[in-house]
Amino acid sequence: MLGLNEVFLVGVVALVTDAEGRVLLLEHSYRPEGRWGFPAGNVQRRERLETALRREFHEETGWTLGAVRLLAVYHWRRPPEIQLVYRAELAGGAFRRSPEITGYRFVPPERLLAEIGRPQRPLARAIVRLLADGPRTADCRP
To answer: Which domains does the chain have, with CATH numbers?
Structure first.
């Protein structure tokens, strides 16, 4: 706690789909409990949210993003964290491995929960509902 306000992380998530509606997942090298997850990262101090999304995505994949729009905001109490999910389009570049990301694949939305690593499963459940029902408030508690 800092004063009376809780200190929390702010993260950004890119929800990228291909022409068939499949969702982009990245293979993370540092996640022992399920390597596959959404393209995501933390916002740095004084960084604009969309800038963080574009920076993280490019650093991890080599790709650049085109149009992005805020789709949903989720929060967790433990650890205190806010995740902003953006619908994003690939604009260009070529995939390259990074120290954090070793591969990628597109999966149908109905396979997300089976494919996603445990740390992002609550978020995956919320995104599956979001893709099925459209934008709304969603509870993503584990």
So the answer is: 9-133 (3.90.79.10)
